[in-house]
UniProtKB/TrEMBL annotation:
<keyword id="KW-0812">Transmembrane</keyword>
<keyword id="KW-1133">Transmembrane helix</keyword>
<dbReference type="InterPro" id="IPR026571">
    <property type="entry name" value="Tmem186"/>
</dbReference>
<comment type="similarity">
    <text>Belongs to the TMEM186 family.</text>
</comment>
<keyword id="KW-0472">Membrane</keyword>
<protein>
    <recommendedName>
        <fullName>Transmembrane protein 186</fullName>
    </recommendedName>
</protein>
<feature type="transmembrane region" description="Helical">
    <location>
        <begin position="47"/>
        <end position="71"/>
    </location>
</feature>
<feature type="transmembrane region" description="Helical">
    <location>
        <begin position="21"/>
        <end position="41"/>
    </location>
</feature>
<keyword id="KW-0496">Mitochondrion</keyword>
<dbReference type="GO" id="GO:0005743">
    <property type="term" value="C:mitochondrial inner membrane"/>
</dbReference>
<keyword id="KW-0999">Mitochondrion inner membrane</keyword>
Amino acid sequence: ERFRLVYRFPGIRYCRALSRLKLLQTALTAAALPPVCYLHATGQVSAAALLYAGGGAALAGAMLCAMSYCFRRIIGFIYLSESGRSVKVAHLTFWGRRRDVVFPLQSVMTLDEVGDSRQEPLLQFRRHDSADVLYFTLKYGQIVDRERFAQIFGELE
């Protein structure tokens, strides 16, 4: 089935780049830990340096999880099928890759059902059949097709 673009968030490519850079930074930090442990075991590095390296690796891992949690919930693109029965949403995975998910239009809650104010920076994308919440922004995103957007989420005014 063919889909037509309804909404786009241009900043999703920056989120993707930041997500991948955070993965790289975490991997490099974790890769530096075994050599520091070895150097500490041979007496070439102090215990404080080992603690700093371990703390840095733990912080990098925690930040990766926190940032990934946020980035995975930001919607980059919303599409509506030409038949008007299906909605396709594109968002990021943990690894910074694009993931497309298709839902029936009836399962998507309108903005009135969700209860968000149109002026909020992040609006919730909710479904009747799932507790999962994704987010999109009207402030920084672009509605490409207002008529189809209204079909999905209801009128903006």
